[in-house]
Design brief:
It is built from 6 helices and 13 strands. It is an alpha+beta fold. It has a single domain, classed as Fumarylacetoacetase-like, C-terminal domain (Fumarylacetoacetate hydrolase, domain 2, Alpha-Beta Complex). Strands 1, 2, 3, 5, 6, 7, 8 and 11 form an 8-stranded mixed β-sheet that branches. The chain starts with a helix and ends with a strand.
Length: 260
């Protein structure tokens, strides 16, 4: 039987999405006690918005503040997976925060048993390709960033949309890529580009592959080949305004842009 508190939170998130009006997080502030509770709400929201017959989620987000902290994950709605150059100027966003990231695509199906036996190094063998991505961060809560961590996690970890650049092969040489020296730039609207070097919170975005696959298969489903995961911000979480053109560039990998 579904926990009625979880159902109420999921309903608030779904209504906020459908009505394009953020919900008040205050009534739900202490109802979620554990990350498992937030993931249960995520599943209810995904079910409500995608239906019983929806395929396994095509794209996910995964990440964390450092390697010592548990990573968090969220399946993403297919309607919010966009190609570089997308125009989001008509999207009813409550907030506009951008993160520039690296996304990976899997090269084979992965079962839960296989996922549980993975290491960081063997996780590299499952990557088919990579691309520059921009995550547009949004919130279904009036309190936005001030909402509790678990309510933000329940709300698809404050995901708005994922903009993907052109895919490039993940080669044998990329297995030993020094991500701590990776250079990237972010340009928001009329502002000058801001440069970053080696600023991924986990020092290596591949670090997320194993815990993400273990989470994504936890209910016994296999992750299909071609599934996408974006891996966390290199630029913090800067705000943008409606009308801004966002451009992300990673040296040696590519460029992605989106019009807000």
């Amino acid at each position: 039987m579904t926990n009625p508190d979880f159902s109420a939170i999921a309903l608030a998130i779904v209504h906020a999405r459908q009505q394009h009006q953020p919900a008040d997080a205050a009534p739900f502030d202490h109802l979620l006690k554990h990350t498992a509770d937030a993931y249960a709400v995520q599943q209810l929201v995904m079910h409500a918005l995608s239906g019983d017959s929806a395929p396994f989620p095509k794209a996910w987000k995964s990440g964390g503040p450092n390697r010592a902290s548990p990573l968090t994950h969220a399946a993403l709605l297919s309607a919010g997976i966009l190609k570089t150059g997308a125009d989001m100027s008509a999207w009813p966003l409550n907030i506009r925060i951008v993160e520039i990231e690296i996304a990976f695509r899997t090269n084979q199906a992965v079962t839960h048993e296989q996922a549980m036996n993975l290491t960081v190094e063997s996780g590299r063998d499952l990557i088919d390709a990579m691309t520059v991505s921009i995550e547009v961060v949004d919130s279904r809560w009036k309190q936005a960033g001030a909402a509790s961590a678990l309510l933000k996690l329940a709300d698809m970890q404050s995901h708005g949309a994922l903009v993907l650049g052109d895919w490039v092969p993940y080669t044998q040489a990329d297995r030993s890529r020094d991500w701590t020296s990776q250079a990237c730039t972010l340009k928001i609207g009329r502002n000058s580009p801001v440069s970053f070097v080696g600023t991924h919170t986990l020092q290596d975005p591949v670090w997320v592959i194993t815990p993400w696959l273990q989470h994504a298969t936890a209910l016994g489903q296999s992750v299909p080949a071609g599934t996408i995961v974006t891996t966390g911000s290199w630029c913090g979480m800067p705000f943008a305004d409606q009308g801004d053109l966002i451009i992300a560039q990673f040296e040696g990998i590519g460029q992605t842009c989106v019009q807000l």
